[in-house]
Amino acid sequence: MGSLFGIHGDALQLRSQRLGLITSNLANAGTPGYKARDIDFGVALKASQSGMGPDRAGDAATRYRIPVMPSMDGNTVETATEQVAFAETAVGYQATLSFIRGRVESLTRALKGE
Q1: Which pTM does this prediction carry?
Q2: Per-residue pLDDT at 93 exceeds 60
C-alpha cells in the first residue's frame, strides 16, 4: 500500500494519531497535573518513511507540550493552543484524504478503461 499512496498513507495515520492526542489533551484540560502531549509530525513522518511504520513512529515522536503559561495545578493544557493544533491537523487530514480519494478514483477509472 505504501507504493500505491506514497507518503500519504503514513501521513493519514500519523495525523489521525495526532488528532487523538489533541482530543485527549482537550478532554483533560481541567485535570490537575495532566501533561499535554503532541506528535512532532515531521519527525514521525520521517521515521515512518525510514521503515519504522506510522504507529511506532508516532509513539516515538510523541513529546510533552511546553506551556506558555503554566497553571497552578500542574496541568499544561492550553485550550487555545490545542484548538489551533486540532484545526491545523484536521485541515491536513482532509487534504491528505482528498489526495488518497483522488488516487483511488484515478485507479478505478484506469481499471474500467476510461
Answers
A1: 0.86
A2: yes
